[in-house]
Design goal:
6-stranded antiparallel β-sheet
Length: 114
């Protein structure tokens, strides 16, 4: 399962400076960072997925270049946004998206345990 290791290192560094409860899991064709046992950010080969407030995802996609709603199984996944690697070049750009994901993570419901 390939993912952008350089981008993953940058995400890891930002999360480590922000929160202590981070777990990494390989899933969705990439490396997902679980914060407080909830999916937060996932790094793929050419983009990053962030989990944000579903109520704001359409507006965010319209306002932000390089962002699109995640499609899974032919269905739009509200609250899951793909961000193209080209708009994550600077630390400020990457922090912007991670900050948005962490803000939602604080209020997100945890996934159901099997």
């Amino acid at each position: 399962m390939a993912y952008n290791e350089k981008l993953a290192d940058r995400v890891r560094e930002i999360l480590a400076a922000t929160t202590s409860n981070v777990e990494e899991k390989k899933m969705f064709g990439g490396l997902c960072f679980m914060v407080n046992d909830k999916m937060c950010v996932c790094v793929r080969p050419d983009k990053m997925m962030v989990r944000i407030d579903p109520a704001t995802s359409d507006a965010i996609v319209e306002a932000e270049s390089g962002a699109e709603v995640m499609i899974h199984g032919g269905k739009e996944m509200k609250g899951f946004i793909f961000v193209e690697e080209e708009v994550l070049n600077t630390q400020k750009q990457l922090q912007h998206w991670i900050k948005m994901a962490l803000k939602f993570n604080a209020n997100a419901k945890p996934s159901k345990k099997k």
